[in-house]
Amino acid sequence: MEGNGKKARTVITKAPQETFALGVELGKKAKPGQVYCLNGDLGVGKTVLTQGFAQGLGIREPVNSPTFTILQSYEEGRLPLHHFDVYRVGDVEEMEEIGYEDCFYGAGVSLVEWPGLVEEILPEDALWITIEKNLEMGFDYRKITVEGED
Ligand code: ADP
Ligand code: MG
Questions:
Q1: Mean pLDDT, the chain, as a whole number?
Q2: Which residues does residue 11 pair with via DSSP β-bridges, in sequence order?
């Protein structure tokens, strides 16, 4: 990938627990200031992966998509977790009002569901996780691509 030392890898999961487990692994490895873009259609498992990620960080309170509040932050883990669901965001100004810059460029880790809707504010070194279904492979099959890891 463009010789920048960043890798891409693909993980196949066949049950929600497996996607959750990938989230746990990523959460354990997460570093301060990272932004993870979670790409994929409704119902592919972005929130399932986020729930695993939160567990990997040591967060015990329940994590759900902040569809109406857009941002939910969790402070009890190894690093602060800022979980964005920007599905209902109208424009970037709204993201500024929410204070996304303190999240993206602070000491915590950010996860963004529906990143394509706020593309212009995403850091260049963001990690991208794309989850895809393939119904020919079964209802619970997911192909997960992780891009931008060290
Ligand atoms: P999103 O946040 O992408 O809209 P959710 O994580 O809320 O999606 O929901 C994903 C749904 O798909 C859950 O009901 C989950 O049980 C189901 N599912 C089935 N197979 C998988 C899998 N392999 N990985 C993740 N979720 C799966
Ligand atoms: Mg979701």
A1: 95
A2: 144
